[in-house]
Each structure stands twice: as C-alpha cells, then as structure tokens.
Amino acid sequence: MLTLRSELSKCLQTRLCRRIPTKGISASSEKRQFISDDAGKGERVYDVIIAGGGMIGGAMACALGKSSYMQGKRILLLEGGQRKSTDILFSPPNFYSNRVCAISPGNMKFLKNLTAWEKIPRFGTVRKMQVWDACSDGMIMFNEPNMSEDLCAIVENDMIIASLTDVLNTQLQGQVEVMYESKISGCITPRNYALDDTTTAIPPVTINLKDGPELKTRLLVAADGVNSFIAQKALLSKMKWDYNQSAVVATLELHEEIENHVAWQRFLPTGPIALLPLTSQRSSLVWSTTHEHAMELLSMSDEEFVSAINNAFWQEHHSSAIVKYVQDYATRLFSSNVYNAKQYPPCISSVSGKRASFPLGFSHAIKYVKPRLAVIGDAIHRVHPLAGQGANLGFRDVECLLRVIEKAVYGGEDIGSLNHLLEYESERQLGNFPMSVSIDLLKRLYSTDFSPIVALRCLGLMACNSIPSVKEQFMAQAMK
Ligand SMILES: Cc1cc2nc3c(=O)[nH]c(=O)nc-3n(C[C@H](O)[C@H](O)[C@H](O)COP(=O)(O)OP(=O)(O)OC[C@H]3O[C@@H](n4cnc5c(N)ncnc54)[C@H](O)[C@@H]3O)c2cc1C
C-alpha cells in the first residue's frame, strides 16, 4: 500500500504539479465553497467519522490516521460496543477463540503496512487447501509449488481487532479520536446533488448517538456490519436473501501432533464443512448446515459433536450410476494431468471451549455511496463463508477508499463529494460483485445431491484440478 501511495504521489506531483496540502490546510481556497463550514457556528464538524469499530472500521480508522495526507484532519471512530482490552496481544489466553478468519497474503501485507500485523501473537498458516465433494470423487487441491508460500493465515477475529486497537491507542492518539459505547441512533445524510453542481454548499452529515452529543461530519464511512443502521437510514437498497443455513464454529483438538498447514473443506449436501489449521494440534471448524442441524450440533455432548465432525469428513456417500460413469470417464481423461491424490483430514479427538452458530445470508448493495457517505465491509456486502472472503473484501474496500480520499485531499477537493466517492464505488463493485456472485453460485451448485448436477460438478472440479492455469486464476483472486 505504501508503494501504491508513493506511486500515486509521484504521479500527481509530476503530472499535475499541485501542492500537497500541509497540516491544518483542509482544502484549496477555490474549492472551499463546496464544504459546508459549520465550525463557525460552534458545532463539532469532523472531517471523517467512521461508524463501527469491527475489523473493517478499525482498519479504516488506522489507515486514515496513518495517512500523511490526513495530518491535521479531525477523524473520529464511533463504536457501539465496549472498549476491548488489548491484553490478549501480550499474554494470549490458552484457549483459541472460535471466531477466526482466513486472511489473504494481500491483506496480511495491508495489515503490515498499518503496523497491526506484527502485533498479532499467533495465527495458523495454510500452505495447501483441499476441497472435495461428498457425493462424488470430485476434488481440487490448491498449493504453491513445494508448499513454500502461505496461501492464507488463520487468525482469531479478536486478535485482529485488538491489534488495530493497539495501533490506535499507541500510535494514533492525537490523530484519531475513538468513542466506545457510542451507538448511532440517528443519521441524516444530504440529498443527492447533480455531479456538475459546483455552487451548492452540501451540508454535513448529522449523527445522533444513543447517549451523547450530536455530531457532524464532512464524510461518514459506515462500517457498522451486516445489519447496517446507516445503510438503512440512507436508503441504500440491497439485493439480499437468506441461505437458510447457520455456520457452527468451534476450536478442535487433533488426535495427534502433525505439520498442520492444510485447510480442508468438504461439500456435504447440507453445506460445506471446513477445518482450518491453527497449531500443530489444533484447528478451527466452520460447518455450514441447516438451522435445525446446527441447533442439534450445538446441543450435542462433546463426544457426539466430535464423532459427528469425524463422520462428516470421512463417511462415504452413495454415488448414483450416472455419477460413477462420469467420474470414471473424468479420471481416465484427466489422470495424466493430476499430480495430487485425494487425502483425508486429521482425526479430531476433542473440542475445546464453546461452540457457536451464525445465520448465513447474501447481500449486496446496489450503491455504495451518497454525498458525504461511503459504506464498506459487511455493511455493503455479505457473502457465504465457504470461500473465506468476507473480511478480505472489506479490507480491500478500505484500501480503495483510502486512496480515493487521499486523492481528493491532495487535489483540494471536498472530501465528501460524490465525484470521487463514485470512483470508490465503481472500483469496488468490480471487485466485490463478481466474487460475491461466484461464491453464491458455488454454494447453490453444491447444495444438491441431484445426480446430473453432481456428475457435472464432479467433471468441472476434476477438470479444474488438472488445469494449472485455471487453478492459478482461482488462487490469484483469493490471495489478493
Ligand atoms: C462463520 C463465519 C466465518 C467467516 N470466515 C471468514 C474468513 O475465513 N475470511 C474472511 O475474510 N471472512 C470471513 N467471515 C466474514 C467476516 O467475519 C466478516 O466479513 C467481518 O467480520 C465483517 O467485519 P465488519 O467490520 O464489516 O463488520 P462487523 O464485524 O459486524 O463490525 C461492525 C461493528 O460496528 C458496530 N456497530 C454496529 N452498529 C452500530 C451503530 N449503530 N453504532 C455504532 N457502532 C455500531 C458493531 O458493534 C461492530 O463492532 C466469516 C463470517 C462468518 C459468519
């Protein structure tokens, strides 16, 4: 990201020959009329307010706070929940949280640039990934040659939030204000303006807190999660549907110590079950299944739960004649190209800590921005966890929005003007929408045991597994 920023800076300096605004100068004078300067009325007008201090809002606050373009700007992070202790970074608990995320190499780099990554004391590394179908022999294996590079890291969500909080506490105290237990209960965003309207002073966004003062901002960045209050108030319509599934999560102990660097995912007709490596003897479970089965899994004894997991990974399913015919044909067709034989995941011996379940659904907003409003993370897109992409897409939103804001500040533009916020919207829609739709299609494709579909997906999976360039394309997208 730093390279990108310096490239952008070089490009702007050489081509446009404009002056970089220095500390305290918010905009060039000829553009100042676009900014409603309510500060004169004694109100608190922030340059940017970020709503929601989850992983994505926290990263946005750090990214803005660290940006040299934002020096002297008033930045506020509002989080509805309580301040979380950062002690887990310095003395990690013996147990692992059941909420983890697979973080792509591109986003590890992004978090490194925020100096947040090096604060995370522990994470698992994935060097190989096996995805296979319970209803056929179809499988695909992803790995870098010789398993030398990490495909992703498995990190506890709490660790990511704590590391971002620590950056805010220790490095950005004078730069980013943070208010905890500050739930936004009201928000008025300006109406839409014509893009070429250069005369109207666009009023700031007004924010009301459940308990607290009224706040105003030139740009509101909404990172308030999947049920975003702000996206609703701003009438940003979304395509959305429920998957009628819940994901059961837990931390599992392996039967024996192994070199644990493989992520396993098996598609069962009820939904995918995934085992993600944490340590040599621990993995994290994400089991997406029907709500009823999820409830059953939560209420089982530890022994029953462990045995259900082992069965889900190991039990053979009956294949119909047509599926057998197609898979024999595919095996003959692709066997010369296939270098990876199917393997089986490690045996689970016990479960440690609590289990939990989360309802799953899809949503994608048609628009990401309005005048003085940009929405990021789950507040704008929600995907099925089967590809481990939700937070990864959110971090890419942050990177893109930061670039767009920096460019506006550098050019002396109004930080909340639609003209540049639309750049963020177009770029991220191109990244988020195809990925979200692909994940949705994958989920649908694997939600059936109807033989002709099983036969087709078996053929598809075996074909993809045998063509390195196809696999490289998949990996390149997921590892961004
Ligand atoms: C089972 C499961 C597994 C997953 N696995 C992966 C994975 O492997 N890889 C991956 O990339 N993603 C994964 N995801 C997705 C990932 O967890 C989410 O994309 C990510 O947590 C979204 O972060 P966020 O900050 O946008 O939203 P949230 O985490 O929901 O944070 C929103 C924040 O806003 C605050 N807030 C809400 N309303 C208000 C308000 N009115 N005022 C003030 N504050 C407010 C909340 O308190 C919260 O702190 C998974 C999801 C699930 C359910």
TrEMBL record:
Query: What is the reaction catalyzed?
Result: a 2-methoxy-6-(all-trans-polyprenyl)phenol + 2 reduced [2Fe-2S]-[ferredoxin] + O2 + 2 H(+) = a 2-methoxy-6-(all-trans-polyprenyl)benzene-1,4-diol + 2 oxidized [2Fe-2S]-[ferredoxin] + H2O; a 4-hydroxy-3-(all-trans-polyprenyl)benzoate + 2 reduced [2Fe-2S]-[ferredoxin] + O2 + 2 H(+) = a 3,4-dihydroxy-5-(all-trans-polyprenyl)benzoate + 2 oxidized [2Fe-2S]-[ferredoxin] + H2O
EC number of the protein: 1.14.15.45, 1.14.15.46
Pfam families associated with the record: FAD_binding_3
Which cofactors does this gene product need? Answer: FAD
* All copies of domain FAD-binding, residue ranges: 47-429
Q: Quick one: signal sequence residues?
A: none
Annotated metabolic or biological route of this protein: Cofactor biosynthesis; ubiquinone biosynthesis
The UniProt keyword set, sorted, is: FAD, Flavoprotein, Membrane, Mitochondrion, Mitochondrion inner membrane, Monooxygenase, Oxidoreductase, Ubiquinone biosynthesis
Q: Where can this protein be found?
A: Mitochondrion inner membrane
Q: How does it sit in the membrane?
A: Peripheral membrane protein
Q: What class of enzyme is it?
A: oxidoreductase
Oligomer status and interactors: Component of a multi-subunit COQ enzyme complex.
Q: Which family does it belong to?
A: Belongs to the UbiH/COQ6 family.
What task does this protein carry out?
A: FAD-dependent monooxygenase required for two non-consecutive steps during ubiquinone biosynthesis. Required for the C5-ring hydroxylation during ubiquinone biosynthesis by catalyzing the hydroxylation of 4-hydroxy-3-(all-trans-polyprenyl)benzoic acid to 3,4-dihydroxy-5-(all-trans-polyprenyl)benzoic acid. Also acts downstream of coq4, for the C1-hydroxylation during ubiquinone biosynthesis by catalyzing the hydroxylation of 2-methoxy-6-(all-trans-polyprenyl)phenol to 2-methoxy-6-(all-trans-polyprenyl)benzene-1,4-diol.
The record's section on NCBIfam families has:
Ubi-OHases
Protein name from the UniProt record: Ubiquinone biosynthesis monooxygenase COQ6, mitochondrial
* Source species of the chain: Clavelina lepadiformis (Light-bulb sea squirt)
